[in-house]
Amino acid sequence: MAGTRSGRPLIGTEAVRAQVEQLLEAALTTLGYAFTVLTAGRLLRHVREQLGLAMHKNTLRHLLDALGFVYRRPKHDLTALQDSEAKAEAKTLFDDLKKSPSWRN
Question: What pTM was estimated for this model as a whole?
Answer without folding.
Answer: 0.52
